[in-house]
From TrEMBL, chain A:
Domain Transketolase-like pyrimidine-binding: 10-175
Gene3D superfamilies: 3.40.50.920, 3.40.50.970
SMART domains xrefs: Transket_pyr
Transmembrane segments: none
Species the sequence originates in: Dyadobacter sandarakinus
Pfam families per UniProt: Transket_pyr (PF02779), Transketolase_C (PF02780)
Entry protein name: Transketolase family protein
InterPro entries (alphabetical): PDH/Transketolase (IPR051157), THDP-binding (IPR029061), Transketo_C/PFOR_II (IPR009014), Transketolase-like_Pyr-bd (IPR005475), Transketolase_C (IPR033248)
Amino acid sequence: MKKYTFTEKKDTRSGFGAGMHELGQKNPDVVALCADLVGSLKLEAFIKENPDRFIQCGISEANMIGVSAGLTIGGKIPFASTFANFATGRVYDQIRQSVAYSNKNVKICASHAGLTLGEDGATHQILEDLGMMKMLPGMTVINPCDYNQTKAATIAIADYDGPVYLRFGRPVIPIFTPADQKFEIGKAWMVNEGADVTIIATGHMVWEAIQAGEQLEAEGIDAEIINIHTIKPFDEEAVLKSVTKTGCVVTAEEHNRIGGLGDSVAQALVKSQLAPQEYVAVNDSFGESGTPAQLMEKYGLTAKHIVEAAKRAIARKS
Amino acid sequence: MSNRKQKQMEIEQLEKIASQVRRDIVRMVHGCQSGHPGGSLGCTELFVALYFERLKLKEQDGKPVFDMNGKDEDIFFLSNGHISPVWYSTLARRGYFPVSELATFRKLDSRLQGHPTTHEHLEGIRIASGSLGQGLSVALGAATAKKLNNDKGHIFVLMGDGEQQEGQVWEAAGFAPHHQIDNLVAIIDLNGQQIDGPTVKVMNNRDLGAKYEAFGWEVISIEEGNDMAAVLKGLYEAQSRLGHGRPILILLHTGMGFGVDFMMGSHKWHGVAPNDEQLAAALGQLEESLGDY
């Protein structure tokens, strides 16, 4: 296997910051908004070069979503950014009415998603955001896997006309996708072809899936690994094609097992290609304080857990 | 003709339009047996004054031209979307869409949804509203975009007084002066009523003018919000104060249900439709000036 290696580690939010910096230089309609978390969102470079196109909203996320919706009416492309919990759960109704239902070209950029925010604990560790955003009609939901892909996604969504939820995180993780990648919204990314089990992962769980693939290979199991960076629209075709070949599937996500990637895969399978599926996800619980590594282990989100799930899925094949 | 005489004629003409809009409102709400006549009737002078006199709108051959961006024109937003009947009637009477379409209000497959939306592509509507408290924020975004675009148009937004109880309104109230949004006029319909009763009893807003002033707004008051001349004067005054670093707030004192005696001043007509007899009684009090739809 060893198809993907890495030379350095970086946080995905820095990919967002780098993407915004580049957008600031090439797209004069892009406006950045933030709710008192400029440093956390890595927006300094954008703000330094485009002070007129940065709007500090203070600690008022509901207003930030509304201001963003209004900016689109004047043809601007607002990137509204804050922590994932405050970018979704706190302002769900504002996003629903002023952005999604009104079909406004707002990019909701959510950092510090999931358990790996770490020590701040459950109040800040949202694990329901993919589900909430996916349920909104017309909302595109993107969850890139590393620094390079987050940067590419940030730049790509500026050219896409419509509301987008872009989710990224705080932990420093390996960069394994190319810097010059083409980011195609809605298109699954084949990481590694295999025959025995399909592992479908999103976000930084893709790296855990790659490591799991290496462990499985050492045991003589050939895993196909797919990176789903776009949760919605969902690339059903890629998923079904793979599962038809391998006969079973594991989904891996840093999200509640209810309503996330796993459920999207299950919905696709139940329509046409029934196959055993195992979930690697947080089992309908809140998180807690701890280091990211400790939390990944306790809540069952490591490569080891993916390996175990893959073996269970294979054993269930008829 | 003297200027004063001409002005008087203009006011009389606007009052006639307002009477027709009121007829439309009660007929629309009666037609589907649902909707919000009280607040709509109370804000009729404001809508007619804005769309037929004060707003700078794009036109071609005497007809308004609608585009979502509203570049180089004034833009109006309605935050308390439940008073959609008065907005729909005004937009139709102004020429944005056929007056006959008013008959579809709140009915299946209509562009005239119970609360306004962009989803059905109705000319004149730029954002959905209905869930309260969001309109001022949207207006601030649109005002900011106009500044970024060097567009000299102004933004107007109407909110309800009950709506002032939403927290988001105060997030927006703080944002506007901080960012020196001085191309915006926000208006609060002070009719003193909300669904569960008089606002002072349900959740007293106390002195809204003082609150907005404390946030850094310039506040003016229109005491006679159902007097066309007073509304025109107040809007003119508000517009003349734009461009000096501060957002402008108008406290518009209106009577809920104004123009239909048995609906006036009562929260009971917030969201209730008249029956056949009540419709006839209401129409009997309102002059038909432009023809019913």
